[in-house]
């Protein structure tokens, strides 16, 4: 039994533990009255398509879907035949956390893992694999590459790095996909435009994430390649991802993009990760693995600190990597108080174990 009364949520497992921005609730309520044409033929869906065209400063095709996994799998399937391969980092969400959805949606394409430091694919190894066994009927054909921005470890590809990868892909005739589950978190740190982070650097299609950063269940495939639009449309319907009451999904995406909410939310989430990193760094025994560039913080904690925090009700991933390595994720809804609480308790646990050792 713990006598500790937890007044704050102590959950840092992921940014999907956050609720939705209040603006979402209001937007969904506001679009609820009266009939609207189904399957995306409503004015709000049209407005979202236009808004995303403005965001990306060009004509785009937009496909709203209910999960990031669906966005990834559909996008990859549109550019990868069953005999093709998808080149992505070993730690990629598509590779580790989607239960084979990319393989399933592509009707069996092979996921090829590309290593690289800091969660980013190594361009030289990518180049070698993108041009490997091309035309050899015995081998899968390199068809697409996928980069995650921000990465699964909270780092970012710089614009120059995306550009290099884009050039490799173009040279090899390989389509470049971006898993943007944390697109906004990356964008606000880089301080660039969405166009610069994507098609201007060679990205062909994006999984434009929104659920982790404010909506309560809508992400989008945004495609810059017109010739993919009918394939993506049929694939979405066939996957059961064409929502009949699309207006409710569109209302969320519309509110998400309105008046810069998505950018404000991401800026806040990132700031919380930085505040957390700064707080934890000042505690003896804590080692920050990578300065967070987005809203994910990996660090190494003394084992007694991990168990102490777990005992206090904190939730975070701690048993997926080497012993001592933990991941904290902050969200748009994370408060300064929640971060301060974690730092205070970590410090208290550290002090307590030092005192015990000294006895
Ligand atoms: C969360 C996440 C997704 C999408 O996950 P869903 O649970 O399917 O919405 C995709 N890529 C990355 C890197 C993620 O973190």
Arrangement of strands in the largest sheet = 1-7-6-5-4-2-3
Q: Would you tell me the overall average pLDDT?
A: 96
Write the CATH architecture name of the largest domain: 3-Layer(aba) Sandwich
What is the CATH top level name of the largest domain?
Answer: Alpha Beta
Strand share of the residues? 5-15%
Question: Count the helices. How many?
Answer: 14
Descriptive report:
- With 359 residues, the chain is an alpha/beta fold.
- The chain folds into two domains: 10-16 and 261-358, Aspartate Aminotransferase, domain 1; 21-259, Type I PLP-dependent aspartate aminotransferase-like (Major domain) (Aspartate Aminotransferase, domain 2), CATH 3.40.640.
- It contains 14 helices and ten strands.
- It has helices at residues 22-30, 43-56, 68-79, 93-96, 101-105, 123-130, 159-172, 183-190, 194-197, 229-238, 246-257, 261-281, 303-311, 336-358, and strands at residues 61-65, 84-89, 110-114, 141-148, 175-180, 205-208, 219-223, 287-288, 296-300, 325-329.
- The protein has a seven-stranded mixed β-sheet, sandwiched between helices.
- A hairpin with a 7-residue loop joins strand 8 and strand 9.
- Helix 2 packs parallel to helix 11.
- The longest helix is centred in the last third of the chain and has 23 residues, at 336-358.
- The radius of gyration is 21 Å and the shape is globular.
- The structure holds pyridoxal-5'-phosphate.
Summarize the structure.
The chain has 359 residues and is an alpha/beta fold.
């Amino acid at each position: 039994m713990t006598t500790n009364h937890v007044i704050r949520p102590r959950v840092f497992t992921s940014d999907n533990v956050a609720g939705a921005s209040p603006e979402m609730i209001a937007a969904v309520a506001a679009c609820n009255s009266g009939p609207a044409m189904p399957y995306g033929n409503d004015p709000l869906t049209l407005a979202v398509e236009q808004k995303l065209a403005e965001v990306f400063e060009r004509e785009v095709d937009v496909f709203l879907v209910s999960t990031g996994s669906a966005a990834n799998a559909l996008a990859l399937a549109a550019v990868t035949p069953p005999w093709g391969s998808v080149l992505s980092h070993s730690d990629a969400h598509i590779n580790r956390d989607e239960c084979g959805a990319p393989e399933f949606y592509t009707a069996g394409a092979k996921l090829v893992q590309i290593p690289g430091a800091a969660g980013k694919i190594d361009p030289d190894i990518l180049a070698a694999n993108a041009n490997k066994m091309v035309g050899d009927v015995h081998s899968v054909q390199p068809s697409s590459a996928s980069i995650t921005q921000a990465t699964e470890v909270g780092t970012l590809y710089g614009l120059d790095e995306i550009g290099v990868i884009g050039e490799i892909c173009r040279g090899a005739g390989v389509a470049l996909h971006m898993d943007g589950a944390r697109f906004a978190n990356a964008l606000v740190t880089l301080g660039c435009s969405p166009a610069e982070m994507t098609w201007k650097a060679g990205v062909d299609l994006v999984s434009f994430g929104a659920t982790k950063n404010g909506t309560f269940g809508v992400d989008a495939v945004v495609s810059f390649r017109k010739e993919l639009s009918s394939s993506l449309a049929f694939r979405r319907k066939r996957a059961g991802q064409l929502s009949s009451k699309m207006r409710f999904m569109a209302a969320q995406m519309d509110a998400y993009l309105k008046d810069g909410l998505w950018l404000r939310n991401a800026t806040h989430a990132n700031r919380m990760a930085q505040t957390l990193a700064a707080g934890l760094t000042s505690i003896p025994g804590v080692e920050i693995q990578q300065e967070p560039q987005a809203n994910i913080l990996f660090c190494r904690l003394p084992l007694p600190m991990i168990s102490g925090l777990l005992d206090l009700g904190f939730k975070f991933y701690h048993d997926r990597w080497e012993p001592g390595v933990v991941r904290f994720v902050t969200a748009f809804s994370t408060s300064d108080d929640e971060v301060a609480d974690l730092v205070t308790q970590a410090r208290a646990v550290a002090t307590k174990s030092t005192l015990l050792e000294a006895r």
